[in-house]
Every structure is written in C-alpha cells, then in structure tokens.
Amino acid sequence: MANGFLQQLPKDRATFDIFFRRVPDEGSFVIAAGLQQVVGELQKLHFDASDIAYFKQLKLYDEAFIDYLANFKLDCEITAVPEGTPIFPREPLMTIEGPLVQVQMLETLVLNILNHQSLIATKARRINYAAAGRPVMEFGARRAQGPDSATYGARAAIIGGCSSTSNVLAAKQFQIPAAGTMAHSWVEAFDDELTAFQKWAEIYPDNSALLVDTYDVLKSGIPNAIKVFQQLVATGHQPVGIRIDSGDIGYLTKKARQMLDQAGFMQAKITVSNALDENVITALLQEQAPIDNFGIGEKLITSSSSPVLSGVYKMAAIERDGRIIPKIKISGSREKITLPGRKRTYRLFYPGTDKAFADVIALADERIDGRPLEVINSDPLSVKNPTVIQDFDARELQQTVNLAQSTDKSVFEIQRFSKGRLAQLPDETQRLTNPDRYMVFMSKSLADLQQALLDQRL
Amino acid sequence: MANGFLQQLPKDRATFDIFFRRVPDEGSFVIAAGLQQVVGELQKLHFDASDIAYFKQLKLYDEAFIDYLANFKLDCEITAVPEGTPIFPREPLMTIEGPLVQVQMLETLVLNILNHQSLIATKARRINYAAAGRPVMEFGARRAQGPDSATYGARAAIIGGCSSTSNVLAAKQFQIPAAGTMAHSWVEAFDDELTAFQKWAEIYPDNSALLVDTYDVLKSGIPNAIKVFQQLVATGHQPVGIRIDSGDIGYLTKKARQMLDQAGFMQAKITVSNALDENVITALLQEQAPIDNFGIGEKLITSSSSPVLSGVYKMAAIERDGRIIPKIKISGSREKITLPGRKRTYRLFYPGTDKAFADVIALADERIDGRPLEVINSDPLSVKNPTVIQDFDARELQQTVNLAQSTDKSVFEIQRFSKGRLAQLPDETQRLTNPDRYMVFMSKSLADLQQALLDQRL
C-alpha cells in the first residue's frame, strides 16, 4: 500500500486515529499504555541494508519506493493520551498525522505495542482493584506469549497497579522491584523440606519467604516453616512469611494463619499464587481468607479471560492540495462505522471539581469551553437523541507527543498518574462486574459530519 | 535460587523436564515448537557489564555468584522432541541436564519460548484442520501480545500449517511468503471506490486482490471489482479476486460467488477475514460458503479461546556424588504430582506400520523394544490397572539437541515433518471436538518408582 500511495498520492497527508470498540472483560474502560515504547520505536525507525535487499528481491516495488525506504525520515506528528489514562470506546488513544505513505506504514507497529500494553495494564487494574490495596506481584514471565510480551507486559502490569515483578530483566530495564520466592525445585533439591528451609534462611535470613506446598502444606510445610522462623528469631531476624501455590487457597490460608499466629508469628505474611485472577481474588477476600500478598501469573500476563484488545487504526482525514477531506469507513455492522475528521476528546467535570461525569469527542476546530454544548451519545447502538450539556469544565485528553525527546517518566510515576485519573471517575464506572457505562458523547457538529458522509455514500 | 544453589549444592547436577498437563481448546495434543529459538538463545546466553552492575547493586548475591555470572559458560545437555511433533500431556517436550545452578536459571527463558510457540502452532493446526486444505494466511501482527509475539507467532503458525503471513519482518526472517491485500484506508484515500480499485490494478495488475467492503459489498464493492477485472482481462491480465472483512461471511460469499461467476470470473478467488477461528470456519464450510482462502488474525496469533499453554519445568532427578536421586513434587491436586527420574518417551506403532496407537513414558534405563511391557495409564485421574502391551514397534520421541550448531531447518520443512507425524496418529485423536484421548502409558517400573517416592513422603 505504501508503495502504491507513493506512486499515486505522493503529496497527500493523512490523519489516522487509533481507538477500540470493546473493552476487555466487559469492563468500562481501558488503561492506555505503551506510548513510551511507540516513541522509542519511531525514533529509531529505519530500513537497513538487509531490509532493502529483501524488499528488492520481492520484485514488488518501484525503485523510487525502495529509495524512499533507504532514506526514510519520519515526518509525522503524534498526539496521544498520556500513559495510565483511563479511556473509553471510540476515543482516540493516539492520532497520527503525516505523509499518507508514512502514516500507513506505521499501522502494525503502533497498534501492536498499544494493544498489548494497554490490554495488560487494563487487566492489572482489575486485579489490583480486587486485591483492594494488598500488594500484587507480577509472576507471569514463563507463560507470556514470547519474551517481549513478558518484559513489556511486566511494565504494563506496574502501570495498572502491581507492586513488583518476578521478571528480572523487566525489573532491571524499568526500575521495578524484583520479587519472588523459592520454587518447588529448591525444596526438592535437598533431602528433606526442613533442611531446604534452613539452608534458605541461612542465605537469606531477612528474606525468608518459604514455599510450603511441595509435599503437604499443613502436615509438613507450615510446621517446618515455624521451626525455621523460631531459629531466625533466636538469631535476631524477622521472619518474612510463607507462600502457598496449590490446593484450596481459602481453606489453607485460614489454617496457615491460625498455625502461624499460635506459634507467635502474627507478623509473618501469607502470599498466595496459582492461577489467580480478579474473580478468584474477589471470592477469596469475600470469605475473609487472610491473604497479605498475591502473585499473579498467566491470567495477568496474557489477560487470559479476554486476551485481545482490538484497537484499530482508521483514516479520519486526508489533506490534499491544502484542503482537509474528512474520511469515513462504512460497514454493515453499525459499530464499525468510524468517526470522521480531525477530532479532539475532552473529559467533562462538574465545575470547579475533580469529578468527571462524561467525555465528549468533538471536531478539532470546535471550542469546548463550558458553554452549552449540543451532543449525542456516540455509541452507534444507542438511540440518537441530541441533548444539551452545560455547566462543566472540559479538559482535553490527548497531548502532543514530542518525538525528538524520549519520555523518561518512570513506571511508578505513570502508575501514580493513573491512580489519580481513576479517582476522577465515578465509582460505579470502576467496579468490575456490570459497570455503569460512562457516557461518551460526540458533538452535534461531529455527528452531522458523520451523517453527511454516510448520506453521500449510501 | 541459583545464588543459593551455588553456595549450598555447587557440585550437584540436575535433570528437569518440561511438560504440560492440559491441552489448549480441550484438544488431544500440542504441536511442539520453539526449539530453534531456545537453542539460539542458549548459544548466546551471557551476562554483560550492565547486567553484572545491576546484580551487584541489588545487594542480594554473593561475590562468588556474581563472578559465576560474569564468566557464565553453559554446560547443559538437552534432549527434546523435534519441532512439529504432536505431543501429549505429561510427555517431556524437553529435558535439560546440567549443573543444578545453571539448569535452574534457564527455567523462565526456555518455558516462555516453548509455551508460546507451541501454543500458536497448536492453534494453527486446529485452524488449518478446519480449513480442510484451503490456504490460511496469518494476519494477526497488530493484535499480537507485543512485537516478538507477532514474529515468532507467525513462525509457529506456519509450523502448524499456515501458508503465509502478513508480517513482513517474519516473512523476511523465516523465508515465509508475505501475503495480504489492501486495507480499507487504500479505498478511503481516493475519491471513490472504483478509482481506488483502478489505481491498485494499475500498480499491481497481477496481484489484484480487492477489498470490497469499505462501503457496501454487494451494491458497490463487487460491481466495482467486476469493472476492474474486465479492464484487467482486456489488457491481458488474470484477476486475482476479492476479500470480504465484515458482515455475514456466509451470505456475502455466496452472493459474491454468483456475481463473479455471472460476470465470467469463475477463477477469481474469494478470501475472507474478520475474527475467524476454527469454529467459524467449520460452520462456514458446513453451509458450503464458497471460500478459497482464509486470513486469520487475533484468534490465531493469541490463541484467544485458550491463550495459555501451561508448560511447567519440574525437577526429575539430582546427581550427587555420582548417585542419581529421583525427585518428585507432591500436591493435594493429583494431577500436579510429577513423574520422577530420568525418563524416555516412545511412540508405539502397530508392527511394521506407520500407525501409532499409544505412547509410553519409561525410565531411561529400561529397554522398550517390542517385547511384552507392563504399563499403566499415566493419567493421574484414571484408575490404575496394569496392562501388558505386546506386538509393537517403539520409536523414541526425544532427540539429543546439538547446542554447538544452529539448526537450520526451514519452517516449511518443519511443517512437512509435522504433517507426517500427524498422519501417524489415529483420525479420532485429530478431530477438533471431543477428540479421543490417545493413551499415554507409563511403564510399570516408572509407576513403581513414583509410588515408592510418594510412600516415602506421605
């Protein structure tokens, strides 16, 4: 396509929006993530000698196009919502404007990164919401869909609220605390469990999280852990706690808590893992399972109950001979009809407060400044009754991205930003099950433009 | 753990098995994939200056361990089933033997790669089985879980039977045909659909697959495609066909086929995409939808209906002071109890044929050579009645992996190998829904060893 655009429409510029139509796990919103990696990839985007040789031998492309790639220089402008922003269906997560030939070429790279990281940040938000303040460790590297997926997934998990990761590469790369406990193989490597625990405590007297389910949690694991904790206390150390990774977590944690408390280890923490997700966490906490920390593996790092964020990259406008031509994609499925034109998205707050009540997508040249505004539900499956909204403060969601400079926000800064943005949303939008559908309007002018383009094509 | 093992058990060697307990999508077997990347990663495994600096500043490790990492030299032996092999629950996909400290360190890297690629190869096998010989193009890069996931996922998709990929990087890297058609943005970029199609045909007269659903498939897309096909024929070219990416694929392809045939384009192919998987393909072919090619995106590249292959890495034995000590992991969940000891897995064939009827996992020092063999169902949830099997040819599944040499088998060689191995399995094991559970036995000697270790611990 890029080869064709360079031949047929070499001077056109285009605007593409990235947005999604459905939220994973039937949630209300997505947590945007991946912008920092998109910027990093775009900064170094080029085609090396082996790429050029490959393109030549395909014998599909013009010489002019091959030259264009060999001398590729990015000339695009990007606006995007900051990482960590909760964002709703149909709202552009990112907008890219530049030469048509270039903007087309970026589609797969940019969508791949944003879809992946936003998916995992969204799942992490759900799991951390269920954990209700208890630390959640990201434990999924061995089950992630490939090496990158583990490392960038760990980054996204922190953005969504996790505290640490067992992925040491991600820990190094993004300054995340590395966390974990021994595995069963530590225990198996020694002749018996007690020896295994003692050797561990010898090496890590202040980091003595013991995995108690290699043979039998209640008959062997916890009694042996208690013996080792007593030895640690006798030598002036504070025992950390235990981890349980199999069996009935509710039953075992209650028994374990009793046994630890009776032995005087009220401070010893109980960490659990084993195929947990937000639903299992909710059920365990509902039955008051005494859990201090969660380790979440495959169900977080793959968002396994809803493993795809279906972000799309759609043309919104073409700039040709100085004219902006808004563009639309029509479809037999109503929800696949796009919002045409260059747009801006605003979050609307009750005046003078930090409490948001709705968003509005408007045309870029409209003024959205708190004066009465005629709007329409942007949900394509809703009834289209115009309403007037008034008395609001509007804050734009997208910001200009500086491609010449790397963003050096740390993942925990992004996590804090995200928590702040979440606090602005109504409680009923944040809950996990059957959340209230927060209203995303489009301005009357945008709705009229969409209708005019539909009428023109149908 | 590696730091601890180096201190406590520096001379021990260990054997770990990689296997899985459950097959994605309730299938009968997994297609093994990823070995070539595991070998590549192990060949280059090292810790650079920045890694060493990072480990030092964690202040968790001995100086001896940091030195060990700085001078890391892999000293492991690997056996594995060749890529493309169909393999069943509990059978070691790979076995790694080496210094305990090293073998422990490889867990996450090796599991990540094998779990990911085997998952996608397995899903691709299902989709290609449903497509019944029609070419399947891998179209998922923009929805994959990160960049690696797209590229190695495309590789695995070919192993599982796909014909081509839309991921040009994967195409280049693994010599796979790059495939795809125009996107909706090509059509939108021009003033009208007919012009868009004509411009495409001008550039690619012999590659004229036209996407007909940007505005309206039956009223606009196909009539315009037919006009362009007539112009192509008039100038001596053979029209390729159309792609439909939305709406009801069954209804639209039947109408499209009629319209193309009536216009004399019986040779024009119909390609479909849009959230397809093996179930939708089965349903479409059952209603005789006239489809020539499938493009499969997110549901293949993430195996979205079953997005995790839960391969595990479990200690089977320790070698200490010249003695081999078999090891077991016990659990409250029967299915989590491991098979101890150094083992070998055999596929059993009716004598003198290429038809397999069962597999058997035996201890490494047993002779499995067709003489009567006492075996037990290895499924931990089954009743344990010993049986004697006789009259069989046994072929070992794992092969020694040469770590000093890169395997340069092409992905299509692996695909052919896989098809050959699949043809050896009973038809009823290959079907997609409710497949027959192919029998995986363990030898009586292995079962006895497992029971002895269980008795010793319980």
From TrEMBL, chains A, B:
Residues 1-115 form the Nicotinate phosphoribosyltransferase N-terminal domain. One of its GO terms (biological process) is NAD+ biosynthetic process via the salvage pathway. Belongs to the NAPRTase family. InterPro entries: Aldolase_TIM (IPR013785), N/Namide_PRibTrfase (IPR041525), NAPRTase_C (IPR041619), NAPRTase_N (IPR040727), Nic_PRibTrfase-Fam (IPR007229), Nic_PRibTrfase_pncB (IPR006405), Nicotinate_pribotase-like_C (IPR036068). Pathway: Cofactor biosynthesis; NAD(+) biosynthesis; nicotinate D-ribonucleotide from nicotinate: step 1/1. Residues 342-449 form the Nicotinate phosphoribosyltransferase C-terminal domain. Transiently phosphorylated on a His residue during the reaction cycle. Phosphorylation strongly increases the affinity for substrates and increases the rate of nicotinate D-ribonucleotide production. Dephosphorylation regenerates the low-affinity form of the enzyme, leading to product release. One of its GO terms (molecular function) is nicotinamide phosphoribosyltransferase activity. Keywords: Glycosyltransferase, Ligase, Phosphoprotein, Pyridine nucleotide biosynthesis, Transferase. Catalyzes the first step in the biosynthesis of NAD from nicotinic acid, the ATP-dependent synthesis of beta-nicotinate D-ribonucleotide from nicotinate and 5-phospho-D-ribose 1-phosphate. Its EC number is 6.3.4.21. Residues 136-322 form the Nicotinate/nicotinamide phosphoribosyltransferase domain. It catalyses: 5-phospho-alpha-D-ribose 1-diphosphate + nicotinate + ATP + H2O = nicotinate beta-D-ribonucleotide + ADP + phosphate + diphosphate. GO terms for cellular component: cytosol. Gene3D superfamilies: Aldolase class I, nicotinate phosphoribosyltransferase. It comes from the Bacteria. This is Nicotinate phosphoribosyltransferase. It is an enzyme of class 6 (ligase).
